[in-house]
Every structure is written in structure tokens, then in C-alpha cells.
Amino acid sequence: MEIVVCVKQVPDTTEVKIDPVTNTLIRQGVPSIVNPFDKNAVEAAIQLKEKHGGKVTVISMGPPQAKDALKECIAMGADEAILVSDRAFGGADTLATSYTLAAAIRKMGRVDMIICGKQAIDGDTAQVGPEMAEHLDIAQVTCVSKIDVAGQIVRLEREHDEGYEVIETQLPVLLTVLRSINEPRYPTVKGTMKSNRTVIPVWTADDMNVQPQYLGLKGSPTQVRRIFSPPQRVQGELIQADTAREAAIMLVKKLSEAKLV
Amino acid sequence: MKFELTEDQKVMQKMVREFAEKEVAPGASERDEKEEFSREIADAMGEMGFSGICFPEEYGGAGSDVMSYILAVEELCRVDSGVGVTLSATVSLCAWPIFAYGTEEQKQKYLAPLAEGRTLGAFGLTEPNAGTDAGSQQTVAVLQDDHYLLNGSKIFITNAGEAETYVVFAITDRSKGVKGITAFILEKGMPGFTFGKKERKMGIHSSITNELIFQDVKVPKENLLGKEGEGFKIAMSTLDGGRIGIAAQALGTAQAALEHAVKYSKERVQFGKPIASNQAIAFMIADMATKVEAARLLVYRAAYLKDQGKPYSKEAAMAKMYASDIAMEVTTDAVQIFGGYGYSREYPVEQLMRDAKITQIYEGTNQVQRMVISASVLK
């Protein structure tokens, strides 16, 4: 099975600092890590390879230093990695990013499964994966917590607030996975040595079949006006009563006391 | 001259640090409190390949260098030195002499599983009456047909009882003095080979230390390590390398104490300001940081010399002596900076002080290191 995992290198902090002028992330001085959700995606891919054979290729779009993130995935057990990097890709929103990554995946030839983390911890959009599936015109299942493959059929558990759905689909498919799907393994010493020796090819815009107007800032309809931390919401009050009727009476009383009704 | 780790070494350091902080650090004080060895952690380190870092790939290793292994020991000891010494006893004291002196069959049979992290190793030299005077061994091995018959005992053996493979020293010819000492490879489970009581120690509680007892243990002739009479030489050269591991252990412990002291002195407010703003504390921190850095240079240089195939006996002794002496000083200063809280078991620095002490004693007391260094300098 040919599996592609899309990973993103993100700043290692939950409190990302924003440049107030440009509204972009300040990356300087912040150590970079592999987006935690993406490590689950890599782990899921390696487990599938161990069970069904095949190859795991990790791909990332980003600046040259994103190679470090790819190396870490190889140290975990991925077979190959490709960095998609070009100044022309700079300033890409999720649409331009997914367009570019989809073009890279098309160039790779046969791909049975694409696995992404549900979202990146810096942008939190959870859009790139689903958008890639649209560009590639293949099935997609998001928020996956379990994967079973039997031949060309994939059976998945898709988690949501009230439980999970069981979904069956055919390869090729794009999945986005949750943290709960697995516990990502640590890289081994041998894997680390291998990753240091691995040459990671860099694909630029010229290497792929892409239209320049869909790349980078030019291809990004999203305009960021302002990024800010929303003020913390005050804890609400929960009205508890034995019956709905009693609860309703208490609610109306409170609302009228507050002169809201 | 380059004072920087290679890319390989940096990645290895980062990898071990991540494992140490996520998997080893959380249970460290509990293991200290309960004097508990964790086979789970030892096995996890094995699976990740820590024991094989500096051995060639044909023997199950990763084919990296001594420096990377030393970095691993330092990082582990930064969070739990008992865990670090479990690794260094396996690698430096058991796997290394088999690698250096073993036959091809011995390497395949014993080194490969050690390097692959499937087994743990131990080293049996010290006896109740043969500590620094390692030559006055009482354990004897008598050749009978195709095997040696071993009788005697060893004390203070790290990994004893948990390890599957043991490098053990015994007298084969008492008339020859230290040239009558011979090294053997023993396996856990050999009839007559048992373990005594678990040692109750001041520190490094998460490592296991035990007695080895030999009662008519039949050791096959093919388990002779090196040649008959070479034991003392094997032991001494093993300890030369082992000292770099102990130096790295001391360094990791000192580094941890420094980090705790820096953090605490910035947070602890007395007289309305953090105590770090008092010069008395700030200068202590300056001295601690300088000592840790000086120790690091000595330790890394000894590892570098070993990697280069150059003589490192004196430098390893210097690194071990200095790093362990400053580990004791720096951990004591950290307790001082924490004040009353430093003496409390609720805070981590008293454990570091207890853990540091052993590094001045084992694998050659620091007095022995001074003998080694002075003999080399004055020759």
C-alpha cells in the first residue's frame, strides 16, 4: 500500500506570538516541532505498513528547515520524505497550500491512502486535508480514530461529540486522524541515524504541474485582518432542577431578576 | 578546533532528551522514594536502541560514536541518574569488554542481544575485600575438563539480578598475582549462580545493586573472555571507558541541579524580590554554571579521544574526577539555594545531592583517579 502522510512543522508553543503589524506568526526563537496530530498520522501509516506492507512517504510544504520535521518522521519509521518548498509558495492560505500539496501528490503517481493530522496546532483550521481530497477528487473521512484495511475496502471509525460513525469506503482515500487514534512511537537510534543520512528531495513550483496564479499569497483568497486571543468568557451558570418545568421556572425568575425579560 | 556537536549528535541528544523528559522524568521521584528499579524503562531504552549506539551494525548496534552514547547517558541522568547508570553498566561495563576482547561467537551470542537492547548487562569485579585493591580477588575459577568451576561472591553490582549477561572476574592462578586473574562471561540462570540481598543505598535508587554468589558454577571454557590471566587488564581498560560514562552521569546530575537552582532562584521571592537578584545567590549560580560547563568540556573531550582511537585513560580519569567533584558541589549549592525547601523531599534537589555522591566513589574512587592522573603526568 502506498501511503502518503502530510505533516507540518509548527512552533513548539501553545501560546503562539503574533506579529501585530503583519498578522503572521513570529517563528524566531521558538523551537519547531512536528505538529502533534501529524505524528499520529505518521504512526497510523507505519502501523498500516507493518500490517499490510508497502511504503510510507512523508510530505511537507514549508521553508527549508521543515526538513527537520521530515527527518523526525523518517526516524520514526517512514520510508521516504519530500519537501515542497519554493518562495512562490510563501504566504499560502489553506486553499493554496492544499492546491500545492495535491499537485505534489499527483506527481508521486500511485497513492492508495493519504493521512493527515486533523489540524495543525498553530492555525487550527483543519482545512488543508479536506481541501486536498477535493483537489484530488478522492473520498475523504475526517476525525478518524480507527482504520481497518481489507483489500480495497477501508473501514473507519469517525469520532464526534456523541459517539462515532463506522464508515466504509474504497481506496484511494484521504483521512484526517485524531490524537486518540494511537500513541506515536519514539524515533529509534537506528532510525535517527538513517534519517540523518537520508537525502530529502526538494520539489519547487517548476517540478510540479501547477498554475502560478493558484500559488502562495497570490492564490490565497483568505485575507487575515487581525489575529488575537479572544477575551476569556465568564463561566455561565447551570440551572439544575428535577424537572424541566422547575428548571424553566427558575430560568424565567433569574431572567426577570436581571431585567432581561 | 570545533566546540560543537555534529548534526548526528545533536539529533541523538534531542531524541534522548525527549524520551527522558516524557518517559523517565515523571516517575523519577517515586522510584527514588520506593527504591524501585523499572524494567519497563530499561526495556523501552533497549527498544529505542540506546544500548547499541556506539557498537557496529554487524553486532546489532547503530554504528554511531561514543560521544552520542555519552550524550544519552548525560540526558538520562539529567532526569534520573539511576536509569542512566542502568544503561551505562550495560554498555560500558558489559557490552564493551565483550566487544573489545570477545571472540566472534561471543559477540554474536552476547554482544548482539545487549546492543539490540534485548538483554541487560553487569560487571562483577568488586568483592567485600577487593574494592580499590581490585587485585586481591577471592573468587576462584578452577579448570575442570571443558569448563571452569567458579566459587566466591561479588558485591555492589549494578544491574545484578536483572541482567542476563555478566562479565565476572576470578582468580585462575593465585601464584601470579594480578596476572592470575581471568575474565568470564556468565549467564543468569547458570546452576549455582545466585543473587544476594538488594543493597539499600544513599542514592541512585532507581538502579538495582546486588550481590553475585557463585557456588560451583560451571562456566563453559568458551565463555572465557580474552585469555587466562588477562582479566586484570580487561577490567582496567573497561573501567577506563566506563569512567567517561560515570563522568557523564555526574554531568547530567549537576546540570539538573543547576537548572533547578536557576528556576527556583528566579521564582522564590524574599524581601519583595526574587532571590536571584541578590548577588550572593547570583554569584553561586555563576560558579555552578561555570563548573558544569568546565566538566562538560572534559567529559566530551574524553569521549572525543576515545572516538578518535587516541589514548584517553588520563582524560577519562580527569573527566570522572572533576565532573563528580563538581556534581557534589553543585548539587549541595542547589540545596543551599533552595534553603529549607532544598532539604525537603518535596523538592527534587536533595535527591540530586544523594545521587551525586556515588559518582565520586564508584568506577574508581576519586582518589584512585588522582593516582591515575598523577602517575600519567609525573611519568
Structural overview:
The complex is a heterodimer of chains A (261) and B (379). By secondary structure, chain A is α/β, with parallel strands linked by helices. Helices cover 28% and strands 24% of the residues of chain A. In chain A, the strands form 2 sheets. Chain A has a 9-stranded mixed beta sheet, with helices on both faces. By secondary structure, chain B is an alpha+beta fold. Helix content of chain B is 53%, strand content 16%. Chain B contains 12 helices and 10 strands. In chain B, the strands form 3 sheets. Chain B has a 4-stranded mixed beta sheet. The two termini of chain B are 28 Å apart.
Describe the secondary-structure layout.
The complex is a heterodimer of chains A (about 260) and B (about 375).
Chain A: E1 2-6, E2 9-11, E3 32-34, H1 36-52, E4 55-61, H2 67-76, E5 80-84, H3 94-107, E6 113-117, H4 128-136, E7 139-150, E8 153-160, E9 163-170, E10 173-177, H5 189-197, E11 202-203, H6 244-257
Parallel strand pairs in A: 1-4, 1-6, 4-5, 5-11, 6-10, 7-10
Antiparallel strand pairs in A: 2-3, 7-8, 8-9
Chain B: H1 7-24, H2 28-34, H3 39-48, H4 66-79, H5 81-101, H6 104-115, E1 121-124, E2 140-144, E3 147-158, E4 165-171, E5 181-187, E6 193-198, E7 209-220, E8 224-225, H7 231-267, E9 269-270, E10 273-274, H8 279-308, H9 313-338, H10 340-343, H11 349-357, H12 366-378
Parallel strand pairs in B: 1-4
Antiparallel strand pairs in B: 2-3, 3-7, 4-5, 5-8, 6-7, 9-10
